[in-house]
Amino acid sequence: MSASFKTFSKTIQVKTPSRTSSVDITKEVEKILSESGIKDGIITVFIPHTTCGVMINENWDPTVQKDIHETLSRIIPHRGNYSHTEGNADAHIKTAVVGSSVSLPIENGNLPWGTWQGIFLVEFDGPRTRKVIVKIIGI
User: What is the CATH number of the domain that holds 119?
Assistant: First the structure.
């Protein structure tokens, strides 16, 4: 007997506090997974913005996020010699480096995190209210 795949999708809003920041959205994503009832499959978190991304990284020590932002800002400065003249070219480049989606496996209704891992919405052009689209496919 073959299993029938289900899909579940939800969009949430996240307010970012400053021009650059990381907002831990792990609990919200886990809540959406729980609501879906899907026990085995794939979950994708997508950010439909060009100056804001998403990443999986350490969520225990906040200095990790600080180091990530400081390093990206050193490599890709806010005021660089950019052709894009809206004042946020660095945010577009940082988002291209970080990425706009992550996908994770679902095992027994849970996300199989490594030690200290979490999902972060990574803001590079805030503060703003951002959309996060979570799509789950599985059984």
Answer: 2.60.120.460
In a domain, 1, yes or no: no
Give 24-66 pLDDT, tens digit per residue.
999 999 999 999 999 999 999 999 999 999 999 999 999 999 9
Within 13 A of 119's CA, how many CA atoms are on the CB side? 26
Give domain status of residue 65, yes or no: yes
d(CA 76, CA 89): 9
> Torsion over CA of 125, 50, 44 and 25, rounded to 10 degrees?
10
What gap in Å lies between CA 102 and CA 19, rounded to an integer? 22
User: Any bridge partners for residue 107, and if so which?
Assistant: 110
| Continuous segment of H or E residues that includes residue 39 | none
Domain with 85, as residue range(s), is 6-138
